[in-house]
């Protein structure tokens, strides 16, 4: 952009002085406008984060074995489910797994309570330390070796049952590799984008594989297929993901076809005794 000419005055010596003053003023204003422009661009960029920036992968996510389209779809799913900020801010989740047991999970403090009414069993587990308390058949377990075994059992229950509830939020978890397989129809004939999930050194069964079907319009998981091993030709289980509902700031689904996750709830507060006493808490 050319500099504007200086202003002329019919005063001896005034032309040079005024022209110099105007050039100096123009330079200051140019720097100011440039700074404001850069600031505006910076503000716009920071408030308009890409899905990948808004949904960073967990440490250990196998990005080198994943493809860009699969990662982008995982980010879209997170956004459709309420967004990463809402998921990170979720504190307590409760659900009943196929009518067998009820879990209360303190996601932020990494604690879980598992009630198994069929045999009056309660597990109170600190997931970070893998320690806790257990009651079996109404009796408190005091033997340390037996308690250690029960805590391992409780952790396995939580890993399995929570994955059936919140898998769409864990597509970029540690140990996961994502690949885009293409498009296919679900059991009910709806077209979906399909992701392949494989695992490494994570969970109880890292040899498993899943195909996750993502609805092309809603961008929600609509079906999954479970393979006991990554090289298995046919899935052992295929179930729908239906019945999405808002719970606080996130979406959750409980309809798995023949099986149902029921009593789903999200809480901001629960009694602290829920994770220390065997008595069933009032929520």
Summarize the structure.
The chain is an alpha+beta fold and 283 residues long. Helix content is 28%, strand content 30%. It folds into two domains: 11-48; 61-275, outer membrane lipoprotein receptor (LolB), chain A.
**In percent, how much strand structure appears in the residues?**
25-35%
Reported CATH architecture of the largest domain = Clam
Unreliable segments of 5+ consecutive residues: 1-47
Largest sheet: 8 strands, antiparallel
| Count of discrete domains | 2
Q: Compute the number of strand runs.
A: 15
Mean pLDDT comes to 85
Rg over CA atoms, rounded to whole Å, is: 28 Å
H-E order: HHHHEEEEEEHEEEEEEEEE
How many helices? 5
Describe it.
The protein has 283 residues and is of the alpha+beta class. The protein has two domains: 11-48; 61-275, outer membrane lipoprotein receptor (LolB), chain A (Clam), CATH 2.50.20. It is built from five helices and 15 strands. It has helices at residues 14-47, 51-54, 68-80, 84-89, 144-166, and strands spanning 92-97, 101-106, 111-116, 121-126, 131-136, 139-140, 176-185, 191-199, 209-215, 221-227, 237-240, 245-247, 250-252, 255-256, 259-267. The strands form three sheets. The protein has an eight-stranded antiparallel beta sheet with strand order 6-5-4-3-2-1-15-14, covered by helices on one side. Strands 7-8-9-10-11 form a five-stranded antiparallel beta sheet, covered by helices on one side. The protein is globular and about 50 Å long.
């Amino acid at each position: 952009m050319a500099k504007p000419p200086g202003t002329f005055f019919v005063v001896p010596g005034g032309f040079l002085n005024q022209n110099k003053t105007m050039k100096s003023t123009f330079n200051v204003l140019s720097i100011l406008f440039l700074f404001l422009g850069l600031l505006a661009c910076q503000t716009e960029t920071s408030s308009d984060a890409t899905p990948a920036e808004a949904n960073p992968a967990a440490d250990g996510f196998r990005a080198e074995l994943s493809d860009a389209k699969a990662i982008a779809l995982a980010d879209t799913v997170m956004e459709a489910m309420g967004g990463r900020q809402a998921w990170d801010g979720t504190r307590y989740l409760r659900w009943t797994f196929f009518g067998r047991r009820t879990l209360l999970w303190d996601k932020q403090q990494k604690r879980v309570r598992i009630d198994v009414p069929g045999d009056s069993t309660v597990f109170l587990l600190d997931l970070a330390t893998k320690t806790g308390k257990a009651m079996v058949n109404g009796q408190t377990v005091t033997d340390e070796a037996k308690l250690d075994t029960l805590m391992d059992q409780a952790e396995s229950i939580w890993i399995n049952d929570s994955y059936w509830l919140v898998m769409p939020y864990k597509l970029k978890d540690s140990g996961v590799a994502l690949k885009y397989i293409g498009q296919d129809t679900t059991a009910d004939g709806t077209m979906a984008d399909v992701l392949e999930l494989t695992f490494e050194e994570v969970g109880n069964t890292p040899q498993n594989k899943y195909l996750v079907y993502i609805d092309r319009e809603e961008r929600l998981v609509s079906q999954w297929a479970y393979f006991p091993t990554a090289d298995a030709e046919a899935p052992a289980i295929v179930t729908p993901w239906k019945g999405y509902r808002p719970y606080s700031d996130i979406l959750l689904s409980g309809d798995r076809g023949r099986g149902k996750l029921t009593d789903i709830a999200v809480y901001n507060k629960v009694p602290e005794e829920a994770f220390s006493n065997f008595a069933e808490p009032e929520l």
